[in-house]
Every structure is written in C-alpha cells, then in structure tokens.
Amino acid sequence: MILYIGIALFYIMCMLIEKILGQRINRAGWTVFLLLPLFVLVAFRAPTIGTDTLNYYQSYLLIAQESFFSTSASRLEFGYVMLARLISSLGLDFLGFQIVTTFFIFFSFGKFIYKYSMYLAFSVYFFVTSRMLFGTMNISRQYIAVAILLFSVDSLQKRRFVRFSIIVLLASFFHSTAIVFLIMYPLIGLKINFRKTIFIIGSGILSSIFFDYLIRIFINITGKYEGYLDGGYFNFEGNIAIYFNLLINFSFFIVGLVIGYWNTSKEINKNTLSEKTSGKNRIKFSPNEKVWYVVCLLALIVSIVGLNSTIMSRIELYFSVFFLAYIPSLIQTIKSKEIRVIISSSIIVGLFASFLVIMVYRPNWTTVFPYYWYWNW
C-alpha cells in the first residue's frame, strides 16, 4: 500500500514541476517520463498481482499448447486468443506476453494523453488515483480494448464511420462489451442542446427503473448470457463502488455545466463546432469538447443504470477513460485563478482521499498489494 501512496505523491510533485516549467517542458519526453515507472510496475508484476492475472496466466499456458488455427479451449475472445498464439509462437513466455500487451496499453494511453491533455502530469495522476492503474493489473483484456478505442477520437471528430467502426470491431475482438462504443458515433452527430441532454439523462433513469425487464428482453432476443443472471453480474449486491462512481461522474458533469465549460450563446463562433439551434438552448462546442461532453454524459447515464448491476461499471470504463483529457481541459477553462486553484485542489485532494480509503477498506477490489515482481513469484 505504501508503494502506491508514494506513487500518487510522486505525481503530485510532478504536477507542481509541470506548473512551474510550463511551456518549457518537452511534452513527448515528459509523457514518457511520467508513464515509464507505471509501465514497469504493470509489465513485470507477478501473476498473483490482480484478481484476474492468474487466470490470464493459466489461459496463456493453455493457448500456447494449441495449434495456431485450431479451435481454442479458452473462452476468451478471438482477438485475445490469436494474439496469445502469435506471441507464444515467437517463443515468449507469459512474462513476454504481459510486457507486449502492457506496452500497447501504455503506448495508447500515452499517445492519447500527449495529444489531448492540457496537463500531462494531472492526467497521469488521475490515471493512478482513479484506479485505472489497478485496472491494467486486473482486467487487462478489457484495457487492451479500451486502448484500441482511444485511437477512434480522430475518426469521431472527422465523421469517418468506416474507420471508426473498424476500430470498435477490433476492440470487441478483445472484449466483446467494447461494441457498446458504437453509440458514440450517432450521438456525436446530434445537435445537442440542454433539452436533448435532459431527455438522454431521463432515458437513463427510466432504463435504470426497468433494468430487469430490459435485460430479460435482451437475453430472450439474443439467446445469450442467461447464465449471467445466476452469477450476480446483473445484481447490485450492495456494492458501494457503484454509488461512488455515480457521485464522481455526476460531479464532473455538473461542474462542467456550472463553470460554463460547455458554453451557451446566441452567437455562432466560426472557430467552434456550434449547434444551430436557436436561443440559449444551444450548446457551443469545440471539436474536442463535443467528444468530452458525450462521453461525460454517457458515463453518467451508465453509472445511473449501474445502480442495478455491478457489471455496468465495466461498460462505464469505455467512457470515463476520456476524463483523462476532459478534466485537465475543464480546469484550464476556468478564467478565475482563485476558482481554478480551488477546484483543481479539491479534485486532487478528493481523488487522493478516495484512493487511500479504497485501498484501506476495500483492498479485495483489486488485490494489487503486497506487490511482487514476476521473478520473485
């Protein structure tokens, strides 16, 4: 536990350094410096670190014994199985496989942060204290899918449907739930205003109320996942993490509205991607802000629906991961220096406090400490 507290404090120090140096920092080199220690920590962890890593280890040993084009005995997705076969055919053991997959995850996250974040160290601090770091050591298969989806932002902004669909499909080969990200494309194309926002949130609340009925309809139509009903995946189970995620997502969305991050105006700014609705109901976006608005809205809706199901937190990850860019942009937008310091300090302290509390009182959620290196296992 002390290791991870030290890591969080280290990135607070990095935020101060970045603030002092400002534009003098080489963004590419600084991004590598920030993420390299975390990459080493995740890539060289023992199979006992993380609730799912040992299962991945055993699955890799099984897959490595199969012929390349045979039907796999593993229940994992096709893309993950084929990647494991490819790497094992090169003579690499599970550690080599873990290094390769971890490198891809951190490369994708690093590229995203480098391109879209206004405060690099803050984004990495959020990555650590929001427990995404722990996620890469637990549900690494889903994080591969998330890492693939991060490459789709440019396709969303430029409305390249074919390219966007291919990226989502590729991500679903590693975790089937990634297919839900397809909803981003039509929502990005909408002329969003406050009325539509209220309607979308209301739809989320109704979906939460009738969640059990919707799930059974979905299972009857698809004929799949019926076994999940008995496995607790679609039950609430009193998990306080669901309330916690809802509070965070709601807070970030409301703060964005209150400080005017998504502006309302009757004037059309030629430098922005503006909605053409009339009056104050219109919301004015820059290209990046349109994406951040939709993912923030969807993260909120999924967390509302998640009040009925623990598995929905997995779906939420596909949208909340974009907070790595949204929150630094949110802070940068605040014109008042005093308010900016208050809000950013509150977020930093709040994230650190929640990070500490969860490690102390809910260590079973991630099982990432005590930490062991692979060669000490």
Provide a descriptive summary of the structure in words.
This protein has 377 residues and is mainly α. It has a domain at 190-333. The protein is 64% helix and 1% strand. The protein has 18 helices and 2 strands. It has helices spanning 2-21, 27-43, 53-64, 78-89, 94-116, 120-129, 132-136, 140-149, 153-157, 161-172, 184-189, 194-209, 211-222, 240-258, 287-305, 312-320, 323-333, 337-361; strands at 273-274, 284-285. The chain has a two-stranded antiparallel sheet. Helix 1 (2-21) runs antiparallel to helix 6 (120-129), helix 2 (27-43) packs antiparallel against helix 5 (94-116) and helix 5 packs parallel to helix 8. The longest helix is centred in the last third of the chain and has 25 residues, at 337-361. The two termini are 18 Å apart. Residues 264-279 have low confidence and may be disordered.
